[in-house]
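Q: Start with the shorter request: fold the first protein.
A: Done. Sequence, then structure:
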Amino acid sequence: MDMPVLDAPATTAVGPTRTLANFIAGLSLGKVDAVARHAARRHLIDTLGAMIAGATQDATRSVERALDLAGVMPGLIPMAGVERRYDVLSAAYIGGTASHGLELDDGYRAGSVHPGGVVVPAALALGAARHSSGEALLLAVIAGYETACRISAASHPRARWRGFHNTGTAGVFASAATGSVLMGFDADQVENALGTAASSAAGLFTFLAGGDVKRTHSGHAAREGVMAALLTEAGLSAPRGALELKEGYFNAYAGGDTGEVDYRRLDLMAAGGPGLHSPFAVANCYMKPHACCRHIHAAIDAVVDIVTAEDLAAAQVERVEIGTYAVAASHAAVGWSEMTTAQMSFPFVIATALLRRRASIADFGAAERADPAVLALTGRVHAGVDAECEAAYPRLRAAKVVVTTRDGRRFDRHVTEPYGSAANPLSDAAVATKFMELAAPRLGETRAGKVLETLWAVDGLADVAPLAEALAA
């Protein structure tokens, strides 16, 4: 099929920041193809489900307690899955944290970023506050995804090897873009909001050493991006060209001082490569069928396929050898002392998949992390870098898996597209099922079902504020 081209070509006279600002300010639903529109609805539904289920997680509760300690007063803005009403900024922060609380939020492979957990809470909070239409909300989501994905793809994996977590760093620009659309900014205002957001980009991979701070990265980005848009509306001036300046985001977070990248000439809207069915990034993001780090999903798919097809009991497995790309292989040394680290750990996740043939939310609790049956298998899991998988990354998130049994049998799989990717997507029915499984325990079956029906037709709403209320606990 012939696909439309993103209407914001980069030139040597217009840098990537202005190119992005022009794109955001000039975006309308009429310019968005049907595939991308439908993908935006799907990712809105998927992210809201993750937010509702994540609202009761420890990290989300900690944020709410911290806001109480800071003296934050009750407000008027509802947030998905949350009982209390807050101001716009606090609601976005809580919603973003909740979205990332269970490792079930979506992502963009080329940028190793989780856009939904930043964009959707910002859009919902600000959209409810401003009584935005469903069309405006959907457009803001599309703009936010485009921003998160293009900026992260342009800097990945260089930013990752410098220790930065793209969800927190690139995500702040996405939230600013989301707010810019809902506020009706022109290109000058959008560039100003992006320039303000640049000073709040934050998020480190220190979470691999333990703790639960990773959950707050999307919350911080959601809040600070909205704040950048509000500061722009309030008249605060910001530098132009914040992405490509010598002291700007790309050089600071992803390097460029050695001369291998001239970010001033970057074609930002092409970062991440062409889409499969649409040029819009939201149509090329993945959804998670497994409740853990996406870098491990290809290996999970391979292991579950092997043990299911061959009807292997976990006790029969002598060794699991996994060859993958370097970013994923770095998770081979991660422990499982907390839920966060367990969801990042190759040994724990694959041991779980061997034993239970799944990696669901229920498999990462304290009791599961201490289960002797799982722990006995972790030492049999070995992951390292495979040259072919490394060469294909980030175009592909591949894994080669070999399972050897105690009686000498050997089974292998090569997974290039984990389940949930744009090339191997969840069906609409699977998206709906995932939402109901996550939302119904919190909202009740009837209300969750009505909300889901509304979300499939969200662009027909005159005002999204009632929807936001229906999503709150």
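Q: Next, the second protein, separately.
A: Sequence, then structure:
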Amino acid sequence: MTASYASIRPLLWLVSLAIFMQMLDSTIVNTALPAMARSLGESPLQMQSVVFSYALAVATFIPASGWIADRFGTRRTFLVAIILFTLGSLACALAQSLHQLVAARVLQGIGGAMLLPVGRLAVMRSVPREDFLRAMSFIAIPALIGPLIGPTLGGWLVEVASWHWVFLINLPIGVIGYFVAMKVMPDHYAAHRSRFDLRGYLMLAFGMVVLSLALDGISGMGTPHALVMLMTVAGLAALVGYWLHAANSTAPLFSLALFRVPSYRIGILGNLFSRIGSSAMPLLIPLLLQVGMGMSPMNAGLMMIPVAAAGMVAKRLAVKLVERFGYRRVLMTNTVLVGIAMASFALMSPDQPLGWRLLQLALFGAVNSLQFTVMNTVTLRDLDVGFASAGNSLLSMVMMLAAGFGAAAAGSLLAAFAPLESHGATAALHATFLCVGAITLTSTLIFWQLPDTGPEPKQIEEVAE
């Protein structure tokens, strides 16, 4: 049963706090990675598993979060999510080795996988229909603010305290959120309980995890080549197995009927391949600024502000651009611009004027944000009501999976170009930027398949990143 908008304001603030905590944590870590590496005795160019493990855990557990909330109630599920995320943050701060830190990030990711979708679900089932867009816009604000302040806050905490505080900062937020949730989180259940597609979920989760580990294993972290090949084949076999299972199941986790919608099919695949390169950048840019150019963590974090700020501005331009040129031309042109912007970081050097450096970061932030906004819109725009929930969940899973792939790909490329370090500290990083730019450019082949039709601009305004 829905309530008045005024009565659900405390719920909106609670969900906003949860989203802020999750989005902050996804960006605050990046500027602290070199400090973590020094503390744990690891190479700063081989710390991608800290980012990769969190993103993979979130991607793996997102498909189950909706069913868990329907089965056990939004209130209980949300409280458990806060506990897991907070305990995971504490375990990260107490980690004494990279393996311990990665394990703690997985625990944190399991909690994070339920925080955002369950919070959104509670809002969707509580807010009056006429206030739905207003409420969703309100809780989308933290998703913009978190990445804006995360890198700078992370750099500042490293300098004034230690890297442990990028995780310890979650503890008071988690405790406050738990007690507020006890009072304001409604306890919604599904009207009709459906059977969970456990077989399909296990195949899909196994495929995602094993393929991600295979990609991460290429980075030279001691994984034998034979094991990498075995994991790759096993992962692909699991995904094919899920495809066959979904074709014959009456209630699959994600119906293959979703892929009969051309815009969704193209959009979901374009999201996956385009985001691999984009997801490598939040890891690579702080490394370039700190390891390659000798900046302090605080200054490296400040340099990320133009990326986030320009991204917020660019989202407003999406409607006008698509209205004038159409989805296909905007995505194909902008994908090329994103790839070039990524590759341009190979030209960044310590003697580069500060103004040019800030402009380069801002331009990358603008085209990258525009890419996300238009990709998400074209993916979801043609889904009917019956497929909207499953389609959105699959998109969320693919976004996090691509984030994990991006971090793993960055680590693998840095390991492959490690011999270039004899030519300078930034040589391996510069070569990696060229490669992630090329990876992004390949997704133009996917967006090329879009029909050259006009837009529905209002839809873009309603799609949140």
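Q: Describe the second briefly.
A: The longest helix spans residues 385-416. Residues 1-196 form a domain with the Growth Hormone; Chain: A; fold (CATH 1.20.1250.20).
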